[in-house]
Known about the structure:
About 45% of the residues lie in helices and about 15% in strands. It has helices spanning about 10-25, 35-45, 65-75, 90-95, 110-120, 150-160, 165-170, 175-190, 195-205, and strands at about 5-10, 30-35, 50-55, 80-85, 100-105, 125. It has a six-stranded parallel sheet with strand order 2-1-3-4-5-6, sandwiched between helices. It starts with a strand and ends in an 8-residue tail after the last helix. The model has no long low-confidence stretch (mean pLDDT about 90).
Amino acid sequence: MKLEVVVVDDHEMVRDGLIRLLTIQGQYKVTASLDSAEALYETLKDHTPDIIIMDLSMAGMGGAEAVKRMMIKWPELKIIIFSIYKNQRLARHLFKLGAKAFVTKSSKSEVVVEAINKVMAGDRFASPDLAIDINEIDVDQDALASLSSKEFDILCFIGEGLTTQQISEKMFLSSKTIANNISIIKKKLGVVNTTELIHLAIKEGLVIVDF
């Protein structure tokens, strides 16, 4: 019997590429191709697949918050994060929330397949370019570990230069809720303004910066 896989990414080309890769392998069946965490959440109400491969940066519910909510409701889920971000702290945070693997989008096709095989065998996996010791991923490394999943997503969006209103629209939350969360983030990280938050997000590698 083929393993059932759900692919979640807001870029159709990425989804199509993953579907082609999995189809070629022969042992996987892609049961859904979705463009948001909300769509995935609704799909899971009817059926849970063997593996979920999902992006982090999508409109609506942030990636970290989505993983947290889904793992609370469906703790048996096997989620593989497929992201452009090559960052150890980000990967550690997602592992802490319950993700089983973190693979960068710059990885070769065989790395994606290896991640699936490792996860199905009950192991956790990080793509080699992350240089993470899987045996130490549960160790909190810094102050970012104090952030909730929602706060972590908001910090990432701040780092990308989004305004409070833009984050509100992206996460489908009120501007007041976002502003309150930003205040909490500042207190937790010991910064006084949004500019410092942006610099911190960039310093911690939570943002892709083009030079």
